Amino acid sequence: MLFATIILGTVAVLAVLYVIKKLFDYVVLTYYLQMIPGPPKGSLFFGNMEFHNKQPADIFNALREWASKYYPIYRLWICHISTVNILSPEDFETILSSIKHERKSMIYNLLLRWLKSGLLTSYGSKWQSRRKILTPAFHFSILQDFIAVFNEETENLVEILRNEVGKPSIDVVPVVSQFTLKAIGETAMGTKFTFHSPKEKNYKKAIYELAQVYLHRLFRPWLFYDINYTFAPSCFKERRLVNTLHSFTKEVIEKREKDFKSDDIKTKRKRLAMLDLLFSAKADGLIENEGIREEVDTFMFEGHDTTAVAISFSLMLIACHKEVQDQIVEEMRQVLDDIKKKPTFAELQEMKYLERCIKEALRLYPSVFFIGRVLGEDVITSSGYKLKKDSLVQLHIYDLHHNPEIYSEPEKFDPDRFLPENCQKRHPFAYVPFSAGPRNCIGQRFAILELKTVISGILANFVLEPVDTPETIVLIVDLVLRTKDGIRIKFLPRQLILSNPKHNEKSRLYELLHNWLRTGLLTSKGQKWLTRRRILTPAFHFSILQQFINVFNDQTDQLVETFKKQCHQPFITVDAHIAQFTLKTITETAMGVKLTFDTKEEIGYKQAVFDIGQIYLYRLLHSWFIHPILNLFSPTFFKERKTLKVLHRFTEDIIDKRQKTYQKVSLPTEKDDVYKSKTRLAMLDLLLTMKNKEGVIDIEGIREEVDTFVFEGHDTTAAAIGFSLMLIASHKHVQDQIVQEMVEVLGDLRKKPTYNDLQEMKYMERTIKEVLRLYPSVHFISRKLGEDVLTNSGYVLPKHTIVHLHFYDVHHNADIYPDPEKFDPDRFLPENSQNRHPFAYLPFSAGPRNCIGQRFAMLELKAVLCGVLANFILEAVDTPSTI
Predict the structure, then answer these.
(1) What does the entry list as the binding residues for heme (predicted)?
(2) Is there a domain that residue 533 lies in?
């Protein structure tokens, strides 16, 4: 009896001491937390978190307001529970990088009935063991096998979206959620979903409803404790929903287990499903059935819901930024050739711009917008506050990503924030869409690959137009970042002819040019065109174009001097002078040869280009002479032969000159996407290097490309410059605004602009775009259809039909451009061009066969306009109404 009394007494004393210790720890912890600033107290029970009667959107906005007001740290408390809210990258690093702070906060206890202690909610040795089992399932060699599934499910998603085309908008969230659930099911679980059965449909619905239950409980502290929650109506609803979810995942596990063979893991004969790894671990005694279900529940939820919202936000942002959408599609063309081609793992890796867009979307809208941890030891924050062990901390990823001290103009969508040179000095924990440290997201590479695949697949088939925008959506608090009312986007079928590589072949009309240009880049087709385009594209990379600015400036100086000598005249006919300027720039930049126009050959070339144009126009209007045999009887036949000799002799002389002096170019490796050269790069050098090293082009091929580029690179740009000067002269207010912009950018008007200076001249760029709208240098093109086409107006055009695409008329369409004859550069302000059809403006064509030199032309136009307007005031003689 005495012994029992002693034992009971000892237990009672220990219990009292334990309670005293816990109370003491709580008092100390609270003491330090009370030193941290935060919103004022509302009531004794709800503290400063009176969220129980607030809408999810109001809660989200309140958190953002407090983050801005109390940066870099603030305290919230409700009842007896206090949380520290972390906002700075330095504190993120302190907490996330240490394994001592791996335990998730009590918020995650809400998920335990559903996810139990899977990878998301477990900690300590159990978490480490599970992480070790599952990590191999996301090795890059395994991820490569999943691309086929991503492509297949993307194709299914595209078909669903295709059926919705024509509607004012589509809420993408439900269809994208179904896509990601199917993708995670087939890749990680090895199970195909069709969403025809009630169980599959109910699973999706149950996840949404369960999130609402958790939010209801989260902001009602009396429901934190199971003893109270057991009698709440929401508890019964949660149990019903969890049963639905567990029933679904149990069926997934049982179905896969029937087909599972342990030998498949050892020999890797099949695509590796994460679920198979768990079965293998079970066979080795590392996990039991309950543990498998925990991980399947966790990955089915996390692997589809977070990715679904990331895809949805990405599509919205891409729809809102036409220039970004166009650049992604252009990158797809460069990587895939045919944008409808299903990308491989290697090709997805090459899509660097698309990756930057996804990263920027995840910065603006991180799927997991905050995470909660329990401190495993005392921490001193960067702002000097002491946080005791066992403190609850919330790390607000959303606010970190919108910090203006880290990201200037944080609400602006700018993929170039993630160029290597722009990331170099950024804090390593300033961007954590997949968390960071030991507990970072195990599936982040899986997610990025899935995002790249589905976005490229959608953009290959549709043009996205915004309905919901960052300004109109309402963000809410949820298990993942969501909007209050979905995300609506308008889907248009990507243009039928220009965007489809099956219609790349030029029509018979271009046979007129064959005697001159043969089958260069302008006139060739099929594999030959693809090869030539691949050779030449890197020569127009922005890093190469920067080297040409000095040539543009030098030749502009010479043009200005020519104009100065004629200033005393009533007017100057600029055409011939400008044509000479553009001919000199294209030969010096692209061919590496300087022209002076002192020789008979150089003067003769200019005249020959004019003469050949008149000859081809005659043949075009007398269409029977297009045929080469009938052309033998044309009155222009002998003049054409004589003129062609002049043109070919000129380009042969250019090639011969350069061949004697050119330096070999370092061709691109798999890691490089541009050519390397210590001296200024000439396109002709690339062709000569390819001829001597790779054997993919012969001397005849080089002549074809030189003829093509000398003609196209000077004549089209000369026309654009001439029309630009006329329109600027005709609109004094535009001329004044351009000059004002030059003063702001250059400081001194006479300063020669650099590449970066020209990039900053946004008003001048809009002016040039409007000139090219009114007077596109290439005012129509002609194609031969490679397959049947159903037009928007319902006509069927059979394969092999010749079609003419009239850019001039598209550009003057009053339905697209109100008051179309009016010269208005502000048509090209971002807000005015946002909802315009992406194929409503085509001065450089569009699609796979768009103009390879369009950036070259824009830079040349800007450089020459700068030089001319720095030296002259233009007054109109010819005007749009007189020409």
Answers:
(1) 851
(2) yes
Q: How many CB atoms lie within 10 A of CB 642?
A: 11
Q: What is the pLDDT of residue 44?
A: 62
Using pLDDT thresholds of 50, 70 and 90, give the confidence band for residue 188: confident
Percentage of the chain exceeding pLDDT 90: 56
d(CA 666, CA 653): 25
Residue 731: strand, helix, or coil: coil
- Is residue 859 located within the same domain as residue 798? yes
Read off the pTM.
Answer: 0.68
- Mean pLDDT across the stretch 763-777? 97
The CATH number that applies at residue 472 is 1.10.630.10
List the structure tokens of 315: 């599509």
**Res 675 pLDDT > 50:** no
Helix (H) or strand (E) holding 262: helix 262-267
The reported pLDDT for the residue numbered 38 is 86
Paired residues of 82 in beta bridges: 77
* Within a domain: 771: yes
Residue 665 pLDDT more than 70?
Answer: no
> What is the band of 81 on the pLDDT scale with cuts at 50, 70, 90?
confident
Residue 516 structure tokens: 């001159």
CA distance linking residue 584 with residue 595, whole number of Å: 6
The verdict on 454 and 510 lying in the same domain is: no
Q: Are 379 and 94 in contact (CB under 8 A)?
A: yes
How many domains, in total, are found in the chain? 2
pLDDT at 761: 96
The answer to whether residues 485 and 515 belong to one domain is no
Which element (helix H / strand E) includes 330? helix 322-336
Residues 451 and 528 in one domain: no
Q: Domain of residue 234: give its range.
A: 92-493
In the sheet with 488-493, reading across from the earlier edge strand, the strands are 170-171, 488-493, 462-466
Which amino acid is present at 465?
E
Helix (H) or strand (E) holding 425: none
Are residues 567 and 430 part of one domain?
A: no
Q: Which of 493, 520, 554 is the last residue of a domain?
A: 493
- The reply to whether 116 falls in a domain is yes
The enclosing H or E element of 373 equals: strand 370-374
DSSP string, 492-523: EE--SSTT-GGG-SB-GGGGGGHHHHTTSTTT
Q: Cα 170 from chain centroid?
A: 21
Lowest mean pLDDT among 432-441, 758-767, 789-798, 816-825: 789-798
If residue 38 lies in a helix (H) or strand (E), which one and from where to where? none
Whole-angstrom Cα distance, residue 175 to residue 160?
8
Single out the residue in 493, 515, 547 at which a domain terminates: 493
Question: Does any domain span residue 769?
Answer: yes
Task: Give me 381's structure tokens.
Answer: 């924050």
- Binding site residue list: 851
Binding-site entries for heme: 851
Q: How far apart are CA 474 and CA 7, in angstroms?
A: 61
Same domain (yes/no): 286, 333: yes
Measure the CA angle with vertex 339, ends 338 and 341; round to 5°: 70
Same domain, 388 and 505: no
* Beta pairing, strands 392-396 & 81-86: parallel
pLDDT of 71 > 90? The answer is yes
Q: What is the pLDDT of residue 676?
A: 42
* Unique residue bearing structure tokens 């619905």: 205
Predicted local confidence at residue 713, as pLDDT:
87
Q: How far is CA 487 from CA 136, 311, 312, 321, 772, in A?
A: 35, 11, 7, 16, 35
Q: What is the mean pLDDT of residues 80-87?
A: 88
275 and 176 together in one domain: yes
Q: What pLDDT score was predicted for residue 102?
A: 94
